[in-house]
Amino acid sequence: MSDNIKAFVVTDSTSSFSQDELEDMPLIVVPMNVVLNGRNYRDGIDITADEFYQHITATGDLPQTSAASPAGFHAAFKYAKTDVLCITVSSQLSATYDSARTAIELAKEENPTQRIELLDSGTAGGAQALVALVAARAANAGQTLEEVTKVARQVAQCVYFIGVLESLKHLQRGGRVPRVASWAASLLNIKPVLAIWPGEGKVRMIERPRSKPKAIERVLNVIERKSGGKPIHVVVMHAAVPAEADTLVARIRERFYCVETLITPFTPVIGAHTGPGLLGVAFYADE
Q1: Handedness of CA 117, 123, 129, 130 (dihedral sign)
Q2: Fewest beta carbons within 10 Å, which of 166, 180, 181, 219?
Q3: Contacts of 224 (CB under 8 A, 6+ apart)
Q4: DSSP three-state, residue 78
Q5: What pLDDT does 192 receive?
Q6: How many CB atoms lie within 10 A of CB 58?
Q7: What is the dihedral of CA 52, 120, 218, 247, to 10 degrees?
Q8: Would you list the domain boundaries of the chain?
Q9: For residue 158, what is the DSSP state?
Q10: What does the alpha-carbon distance between residue 219 and residue 158 come to, in Å, rounded to a whole number?
Q11: What burial letters (b/e) apply to 223-254, b meaning 16+ CB within 10 Å?
Q12: According to the model, what pLDDT value does residue 181 have?
């Protein structure tokens, strides 16, 4: 980490960062919470993605999740000491944004000189990670809070999230889709393709292919349309299907000019609602 840090970046664990990606970066990840069999786990700290997917596959447990706490954000702000840009998962998907806002009010009472900006990323997962990464790199280069916030907002306005579900079973169990829709999707072997478009902040279903290979082809077609032939930054995410993620990265590198490609497991707080087998892509194109 540079000695010339003027701002820190704080985000929540929906971003699905691995610990390796956090090394030597002015970036702090505040854990959300996963509840299994009545026990609370801090996402990415008390339970890893691999451990989580192994557990729910073996037991069939229905996990619950909760937002990152104000206390967690407050501790991150105190640790940073300097100015902070706090980037959260879409406020339409979680109460985490409100938790961060509460923590900011408390932090300002304790340290009025510390400036904290709050940015709703309008997205989740690897797309949120791309927003946080560009901000953290700017901070590591010694840029000011205003400059760090500016580049983060620019990426947030053009980053895409696309995911292919193995099934609708977990969404149905969590009450997010009607039971009949889940049953019909299973019967027809449909692999729903979900997306979060820039600026919308909510999940939409964009395709209903009847096989995973067809669903992946739809994802690649979306990348082609939305990137317009420009260089892209890519994060491939997976829920306990690392081999599929590796194959998808290889296909993306063959088809597009990639400035960077990262692979990360989906955090348990996302996997709790989608189940194992989810494969996703987040990307934005350079201007």
Answers
A1: negative
A2: 180
A3: 255, 256
A4: helix
A5: 85
A6: 8
A7: -40
A8: 7-32+67-155, 160-285
A9: T
A10: 17
A11: beebbeeeebbbbbbbbbbeebbeebbeebee
A12: 43
